[in-house]
Amino acid sequence: MRPLLPILLALLLAACGARESQGAAAASAARVGGAPAPAPEETDPPNAKGQHPAFPGQTRAPALTTATAFQVQTIAKGLDHPWGEVFLPDGRLLVTERAGRLRILTRTGAISPPLGGVPKVVTGEQAGLFDVALDPHFPANRLVYISYMESRGGGSGLTVARGRLVENGAVAVQNLQPIFRAQPAMGALANIGGRLAFAPDGTLFVTVGDRFTTDGQARAQTLDNDIGKVVRINPDGSAPKDNPFVGKAGARPEIWSYGHRNPESAVIDPWTHRLWTIEHGPRGGDEVNIPEAGKNYGWPVISYGEDYSGRPVGRGITAQAGMEQPIYYWDPVIAPSGMAFYDANLFPAWKGSLFVGGLASTHLARLTLKGDRVVGEEWLLQDLGWRIRDVIVGPDGALWVLTDEANGQVLRIAPK
Questions:
Q1: pLDDT tens digits for 145-159?
Q2: Is 183 exposed, middle or buried (0-12, 13-18, 19+ CB in 10 A)?
Q3: Is residue 15 in some structural domain?
Q4: Could you tell me if residue 47 is inside a domain?
Q5: Which of 24, 107, 180, 369 is most exposed, with minimal Cβ within 10 Å?
């Protein structure tokens, strides 16, 4: 935390409750005695010069901290770039490894051999096996869903498949069948997306990146493909009839929203039941969005940050009519991957916070919210120096974190 005046610190420490009280405390701290707003966590200069947020608080929210004492336990290690995780009803953890393996961790941290039935995946650069999700009716049907990079002819594409987890003898995913293939296949192996999030109505959101190509960037703005999109499908892969582009000529019916760069985070807000996503920007411009049906989120026409060459993205504009603004962005980037709303009771002061894993920043960001606005930011685990790939809330109320390393770890964050 950056140094603050005692009166500001007292007000900010009072902001440890639910998202509404956090927002009110931050706003009050900014007004006391006409004092300036508290300093943000981020103090490095932005990559892009001359850009300005579209509204107050869209970036560099005030640095907040709490008196919450926690400990970090290493539950398991030795995983090869773990990517996605989900708890089984009995408390065990399903974990993917990007190299193409799916494993089960027992409650004591023992790692199973690789599960059978997982298909061969394309690997290299960012490609591999990505997320894993349980069917909403898993206790009855035992269905699991995985996302991965699939070889297709001369290229590859993001694929979602489902199968039945069977534990009679050797543990395996049986009858795994693709239910969705992002179109078209392409040659590049970066900016793939791959997050899965089941909505309360039983539909499945899938994030698809722009593949880090000029062609993919252009495709993010057209509706005849899945590149640079958030798609919404039924559990069998069909397009829900109430999707925004169903019946529209030249548009793929599974598309939910478009104009995305590389969304590697997706989660359902447990209070509003809306989808939230976070996507990687270029140099600067990581975005938090709440994708709404049929809306255009701008990439690559509008963007915060700049190209990796140091030149502007496109015309260098950050806003245009008909294109949505992110509710929050980072410049410099944190390279976000994986996020979770904290809705448990183990950490009362953190309830309502949004936790975001940072790859490049090697920290876990805690965002405090007032409605749809970020009003405070705290950086955790900075001293560990590990790339944070995913974070979820466990059935025990602890935060369970994956580190993206060749010797990847499963961490449990619990009260000290």
A1: 999 999 998 899 999
A2: middle
A3: yes
A4: no
A5: 107
